[in-house]
Amino acid sequence: MEGKTLTTEGAKTAAARRSAGLARQWARPIRRLFRSAWRVCGSVRVTVVLILVLIGLSLVGTLLIQVPGEVAADRAEYAWWLQNVVRPKLGLFTTPLAFLGFFDVFHSLWFLGAGALLMASIMVCSINRWKALRSALDGSRVKLADGFYEGGSSRAQFSDLAMSAHEAEGVTRGVLARRRYRVRREGGADGFWIAADKNRHFRLGTYLHHGSIVLFVLGFLVGSYFGFRSQSFMVPEGSVREVGYGSGLSLELESFVDEYWPEGPPKDFRSQVILYENGAEVKRGVLRVNHPMSYNGVRFYQSFFGQAAVLEVRDSSGKLLFNDGVALGWLSGQEPYKRPTGMFSVPVTGLTAYVVGPAKGYSDPMVQPGQVLMEVYSGSSKPVAVGALQQGVPKKMAGLEFTFVRERQFSGFQVSRDPGNALIWTASSLFVLGVGMVFYFPHQQIWVRGWTEPGKGTRLRVRTASGRQVATAREFETLVEDLDRELARAVKKV
Amino acid sequence: MVKMESFFFMAALLSTGLSVLFYLWQVAALRWHRAVLVAGAASDAASTVPAAGYRPWGSGRFAAMMAVNGLLFLSLSIIGRGVATGHGPFSNMYEFSVALAWGVIAATLYFQWHYRTAAVSAVAMPVALAFLVYAYTLPSRPLPLVPALQQSLLLTLHVAVAMIAYGVFAIGFGSAVLYLAQRRGSIPWLPSPAVLDDMGYRSVIIGFPFMTLVLLLGALWADVAWGRYWSWDPKETSTLVTWLLYGGYVHARVLRGWRGSRSAVLLILGFAAVVFTYMGNYFFSGLHAYK
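^ Those are the sequences you sent over. The predicted structure of the assembly is below.
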């Protein structure tokens, strides 16, 4: 028994050893891979290339025709769109460009891949930068070799000052303190050393705006995975429509008004609406462009409008099957006769009816003003009945009685729930804050070395950090002027 | 009010035109002066630097005065129009071009004062003039606002920050162009390459945060008006590209120490992107098509 236990234990340890060996065997290449990935991501050159790739792809997306969102979601519709919209324009280029995903650039593998790599690179660069930043926050060494004071992008020298090194140090520290520098000093028999800096904490702004880019992406992802967006939620006047997406909301449009300026352009679009949640009224109000309505994180935007038709359908016994508005929300037919079209399903019968209004701006040979054309389908692509309906005149079609009761308008809304929105605006604020911190409060560093030269007086050497910085040069100029004035005053007093 | 506005506009156009003439005249004078200097240097080998008391660009007072005039008249024109229409200059290309010209002239004067050189002004002012001449060709009659544009506060801010950003970037463009001409420091009547490089950098330091605000305010408005902060609308995209170019400039400079010609080329590309974005309404339709 005991032996057996031992053997299982032995087997266990052997297995553990084997897996440990395996881990060891793999650890090194994995570590090496990780390290080179880290190096690639941390390289500024790679970052610049990624940004250039994103710029190039954005230009493609700007200049090349892009597939509308609703079409892109449906393979068949996309193919149709390529064939009928793109091919006539681009001909032979269509297939290779489509293969590259260039008609939906912003959702293509290229764009998402480059974007993801850019995120990684921003994070790695930020982490890599921490070391330099921490030493900047701690402050440099105070006492440096004499040669150091001959460097820097700007420097100045004061010599033959008729005062002691100690007095000169007092004046210098006074000037620096008044300009709100943090002053650290060391002194000795051979003079003094000062390392001063200000705005060092503003350098942390770099984490705010670089971090906010990651937040932007996060906000975008949260919005697209946990939210919804309907671009074409249409409600005819007098009708109620469910929002869907599991929101339990429905919207009733009481009336819609479109107003125009005397010169012609539109002035106002107003929808008077009532919002229901699970059938109970929760909100009512007016929806206008720039004045959305919000309820429980779901927002409604006035977006478009158009013609609607109120229709009645009765079966042969005269029983009312359908009585509602139908939004003629899309266009069908060939140029120039683009006709507003809508559809509805007739309850119980399994029939689908298309409603076509007259084309705008042309005298339409097919549909007269005051009429709608009905096409009734039952499954197949051939209509079972087609006929024009005169307003107020019932017509028998497909065994049913259709009446075009009256013309109304529908209002189109964009409905969205975007839980990522708060993240986006937080990121925006952080970004502005971070950029403001880094750009307008540049980190300034000053080093001063002062000593007394026997028989000559005191000498001061002042320098800035290296790397020519506009703000540094200007700050330094005025600092030196201050110092010059104060030293002269002190000399006079002495 | 509208009549007054067009009077102010014409006055601004004239002043700016004169200012450009003066600047160009000054360039010609300086070149001629250099010829004299070089001739003088032949006899007196000691001096190839301008003689004491000679202030290159110091005499461009007329040019600057005319530019100030132009700025004043443009301000009056924008304010007058704002009072008449009740909104900022964002409703059509005419208004936006005037605003842009204002930004360029203001930035020109600021940089000229700050750096005490008018060299870059001689490149930037023609850009302002071009915007104004272009505005002159456009229908200027104020049209009432379509519903989406009836968001005065956000849009006025959006355009105001764009005005500053683009104006300052025009200076970056001017200094980059001059830098490329002057990169060996061989033109004595131009500022040194280091100063030109500096001006370019400063223009981005000032302009980039404003450019960021252009994007964010635009996104905020889009969120209020259409319910989405970003829709890859062509003008949005090309603004983003512009922003990325200037962002690239900052990173290349701070992290990789890019100076001189390479960053000058980036500044020129950046400004090309600005002009492309501005003219973009004509290349593509979209939310910014003012229709």
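Chain B touches chain A at residues 143-148, 150-151, 194, 198, 201-202, 205, 208-209, 212-213, 216, 219-220, 223-229, 232, 234, 237-238, 240-241, 244-245, 247-248, 251-252, 255-257, 259, 283-284 (CB under 8 Å). The first helix of chain B runs from residue 2 to 43.

Shout if you want it in another format.
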